[in-house]
Write a structure and sequence with these properties.
The structure holds 2 protein chains of 2 kinds. By secondary structure, chain A is of the alpha/beta class. Chain A has 23 helices and 18 strands. Chain A has a 6-stranded parallel sheet, sandwiched between helices. A 6-stranded parallel sheet of chain A has the order 9-8-7-10-11-12, with helices on both faces. A 6-stranded parallel sheet of chain A has the order 14-13-15-16-18-17, with helices on both faces. Chain B is α+β, with helices and mostly antiparallel strands. Chain B folds into 2 domains: 80 residues, Alpha-Beta Plaits; 69 residues, Alpha-Beta Plaits, CATH 3.30.70.1150. In chain B, 28% of the residues lie in helices and 38% in strands. In chain B, the strands form 2 sheets. In chain B, strands 5, 6, 7, 8 and 9 form a 5-stranded antiparallel sheet that branches. In chain B, strands 2-3-1-4 form a 4-stranded antiparallel sheet, covered by helices on one side. Chain B starts with 12 loop residues before the first strand and ends in a 9-residue tail after the last strand. Classes of the chains: A alpha/beta, B alpha+beta. Chains A and B meet through loops of A and helix 1, helix 2 and strand 4 of B.
Amino acid sequence: MKGSEVIVKCLLKQDVKHIFGITGGAVIPLYDELYHYQDRIRNIICRHEQGAAHMAAGFARACGKPGVAVATSGPGGTNLITGIMDAFMDSTPMVAMAGQVPTSLVGNDAFQETDMMGLTLPITKHNFQVRNPEHIADTLLKAFKIATEGRPGPVYVDLPKDVQNAEVKGEIPDKVEIRSYRPTFRPNPLQIKKAVETILKAERPVIIAGGGCIIAGAQDSLIEFANLSCIPVNTTTMGKGIFPESHPLSLGVMGMHGEEQANYAAINTDCIIAVGCRFSDRITGDTRLFAKDAKVVHADVDPTEIGKNVRVDIPIVGDAREVLKMFAAVFAELAVKKENRHEPWIKKLRELRELTHAEEDKAAAGMTQANLLRMLNRFKQESDIFTTGVGQHQMFGEHYLTFTRPRTWITSGGAGTMGYGLPAALGAKVAMPDRNVYDLDGDGSFQMTSQELATAKQFGIKVVPIIMNNKCLGMVRQWLEIFQGNRQSGVHYANFNPDFVKLAEAYHLKGITVARESEFLPALEEAKQSDETVVIDVHVQEEENILPMLPPGKGLQHIIGGRTVFRQNWDDVK
Amino acid sequence: MYDDNITHYRKHQHTITLIVSNEPGMLARVAGLFMRRNFNIEALTVAQSTKPEISRMTISFKGDDKVYEQLAKQLNKVVNIVKVSDLPPDISIIRELALIKIHTKGPEEQKQLMAYCQAHEAKVAHVNRDDMTVEIVGSPHKIDSFLELVKPMGIKELARTGATGLFRGNTGFEKL
């Protein structure tokens, strides 16, 4: 058997049905082999390797299975880098493979050679170079194991061309063991007990549910725990959707552009129960001011996250679902009278939530992103998947779109990768062909990967990019306006954006312009009904700001642009 | 005989020992981690262990307990690092080798230096007309104090290996 056949057999063994990639000199043997397996592995050829990596990530985030991205050596590999880094920051399971020059030429600066091992070292969970063809199967199975077990992440596999071409025995083991890799899954019951004792003493507790809860499939356990303990739930940007935002205990997303009631809870709480979140600076602001007077219970599957950014009182290492299940079990046993549990706290938070939502509903009509996204929120169905680019539209989406299910809000959280939206949407649609998939995008972000419209057309992958086109890099423009004395350096695209409708048409797809508010819903409806990708170019107001926001380097207490509640603190309420 | 003494041990000085898979790029993984996470390596030694597939690394660095804890966790996360452990000076043997080339102007200084060597159980490895190369093995602190002693004579060149170490106890670290 040829090395390349072993690779394909390993992919089949891992139940891989889709590959996102671009071929090239150093992966010809692999693609040659895939030719024979077209009926079992769909080979989606992208237009840029960054797109391939984001598609693999979108696929993984939508369905939970690892995404596979393939590229050739040298520039093919380096083009994958942004996507790999993005997957690393957001703990997305991915196996990225690239060809490499033959082993005899490695280190000689051969044509299209680059040190992908060195380049991917800091942005992968692990990486491998297969030098011995007999190790292909073992290596690939290890790659999938590492990418998916414990805290997921990207694994890179370097495949020299001669290794792909070599004749090997080709025995594919059933299982691989990695002695030095055994992530903790079950939390320590003693720590759970300590945590529960702390939680029971709290008067103003709040749960922070992060992306780890989505990865662990913890929605049921989270809802059960929240209901039994009567504790309100904040999510992070990455955790959005894990707790139904229609639930009476939901406070929404917290952090830099978070909902006011969520940040209020984080500021005034006396006990934070953080599960599957890494306390990113976008959540905490200045960590010296974060949860100053609160006990912190922090559960994460990755022990390095515990105590890394925020002081922790009760550390718990383990899978988010297991942790929440154990919490729920203890609270079920205690059968605490629900009604009486921290009632003033809950009452206050609900009041604030109603207040902020009422304020938001009063916001300006017309072509503002706030208004349009409120319309979009009423239009969308519960099962719809939204991916995003990065910038104002993303934060408006986080604010105004409500989700009730995990894996429906797929956004580049840690890395903030502009250009993530379209390819991630395509990947998500491949994973979930029966769902409507929208790419909520900006004109800046969309142009970074818009060539993947060709992939959408060629492979009949239907998504709906909705471009919030304000002819500038809106988020940076907002920062410049607020923090730099409105010196608008390098943010205006002005009239040099392409006509996105014509761009869609150039890719044999339909585009619709929305210049007036009244045109928005008909455009969405038409795009939804279409069998093919339809691009919606929405001409929004240029100078709209997404508020409230956390000024850089400040604490959550210093959020600006809050409508109602930030001036209050719990002591005044009492 | 010079004895390790914890009170002499410089504050915040850590020596950790790593059991790692002996494979290409392993050093880069460890060194890269120190750089990325903003930790500073003072010394690093690496060589094969009793098993060919396993190497042992010893790393010295400065940092408080919080730094040590985070670093140990980050190192543990590296897939092919098998084991990470601190070597606290009071329960470990920590040794380093140094070769020191020292100016010696005339027989008086030579004699003086040889007396120093004897007191520190250091050996004279080589003698030139106007310098001597001394070979000394001991704790990093012992080497520091020897260097302090001979500094007035003039040190021409210095090569230190960095610390390596083992637990004093009978628990084998490579038995996994």
